[in-house]
Write a structure and sequence with these properties.
By secondary structure, this protein is of the alpha+beta class. It has 4 helices and 4 strands; from the N terminus they run H-E-E-H-E-H-H-E. The longest helix is centred in the first third of the chain and has 39 residues, at about 15-55.
């Protein structure tokens, strides 16, 4: 963006003061809650992983069982295409994605999942669950 003469052409407009203040407040709140929220989300993540592994056959957890983000679960289901599972889950009110976040805009198998040792067929049968602040055991 080209700036105005008042800023010697370096800045195009007035700073977004409400946005800056809002971001500062969001960072303050996140900083206060990071430990307790991380622990809560980790418990939910682990419960989800256990439930999936207990109730589904031919499932593989992608990534390390513990050394992972608190809010992320990625599993592969053999013999099933991920996109069809995604559509069925959506009809049940559950929003998930296939593959990895790194490949969300590509039809190619995720390079991340391939690097973890999955073959392209199983990489396409992967599901990505992301938990957040408003995730509860009920939903």
């Amino acid at each position: 963006m080209n700036g105005g003469a008042q800023e010697r052409g370096r800045r195009a407009s007035t700073e977004n003061v409400p946005g800056i203040v809002g971001f500062g407040k969001a960072a303050e709140l996140a900083g206060r809650e990071i430990s307790s929220e991380g622990a809560r989300i980790t418990r939910l993540r682990d419960k989800l992983i256990t439930g999936i592994q207990k109730n589904m056959e031919h499932v593989r957890l992608n990534g390390h069982p513990v050394k992972r983000l608190p809010n992320n679960v990625n599993v592969s289901v053999e013999f099933v295409e991920g996109e069809s599972m995604c559509l069925n889950m959506d009809m049940s009110g559950i929003c998930i994605s296939t593959g990895s976040a790194c490949s969300s805009t590509s039809l190619e198998a995720s390079h991340v999942l391939l690097a973890l040792g999955l073959d392209p067929v199983n990489a396409h049968g992967s599901l990505r669950f992301t938990l957040g602040k408003w995730t509860t055991e009920e939903k």
